Amino acid sequence: MSSVFKSRISSLLLMGFLAGSLMACSDADTEPDNPEGTEEEEMPEEAKCFIDKESWAMGVDHEEMVKYFELKSYDPEDAPGTEVRWLYLELEHEGEDHVHIGAVKIKELLEEEKPEGAANGEFVKLMIRIDEPTWYFGPETENVKVQGYNSEPTGETDPSMFDTHTGVAEVASGDDWEYYEVILKRYAFYSVYVGAKMEVACEE
Predict the structure, then answer these.
(1) CB of 131 within 8 A of CB of 192?
(2) Out of 19, 31, 146, 182, which residue is the most buried by the measure of CB atoms under 10 Å away?
(3) DSSP H or E segment with residue 20
(4) Cα separation of 128 and 30, whole Å?
(5) How far apart are alpha carbons 197 and 174 in whole angstroms?
(6) Closest CA to 184 of 90, 121, 111, 112
(7) Contact predicate 130/104, CB 8 Å
């Protein structure tokens, strides 16, 4: 075999090797659209769409649903931390439909939770959660409003007039719900209002 022929063969082999190497590098530099093990980024909340709703801790008066509930008097036999009231958090509705989106609890205080100088049973802890998927605490500046009463209220309950407690609940809701908690003076009756919002499909 002539030296010229051998030289041409060597040149062809070298060119083939270089071409294969360049293709391999090109393939390695091209990342897939969603690499394995990489989670899709969650859509930011400002890109989602919601509708606002009003909800209440609904009590019962003579078999009718009302926007307040009664709390029993302090019982020294109740241990600290005892749950003394539990109610559904319901959407404001018309007719007989009841849509529950969470729960409202009242507990006796633990010793370390009592305000300084307070007597036993003088204060209680209010706890609110929203545990239904796609439901959240609303965007209002004050989305939790509470009014305490020494006697059973009459007439309409207007949350804009509530002054026992107003606050902003920013805790998790849905499957990973957390409680919004606040210490309140003990009253015989309470109205508890929560501004809520439901995630909906955005209109194109």
Answers:
(1) no
(2) 146
(3) helix 3-29
(4) 50
(5) 12
(6) 121
(7) no
Distance CA 55, CA 193 (A): 6
Distance CA 58, CA 193 (A): 9
Beta-carbon contacts of residue 182 (< 8 Å; ≥ 6 apart)? 125, 126, 144, 146, 165, 167
Q: Which residues pair with 149 in a beta bridge?
A: 189
What is the per-residue pLDDT across 94-105, written as a single tens digit (0 to 9) for each? 556 778 999 999
Whether the full predicted model's pTM is greater than 0.85, yes or no, is: no
Pick from 104, 169, 100, 174: nearest CA to 134: 174
pLDDT, position 15: 52
What are the residues whose beta carbons fall under 8 Å from the beta carbon of 107, sequence distance 6 or more?
81, 82, 83, 84, 124, 125, 127
Q: How far is the C-alpha of 170 from the C-alpha of 178, rounded, in Å?
A: 10
**Do residues 70 and 192 lie in contact, with contact meaning Cβ atoms separated by under 8 Å?**
no
For residue 85, the SS3 value is: strand
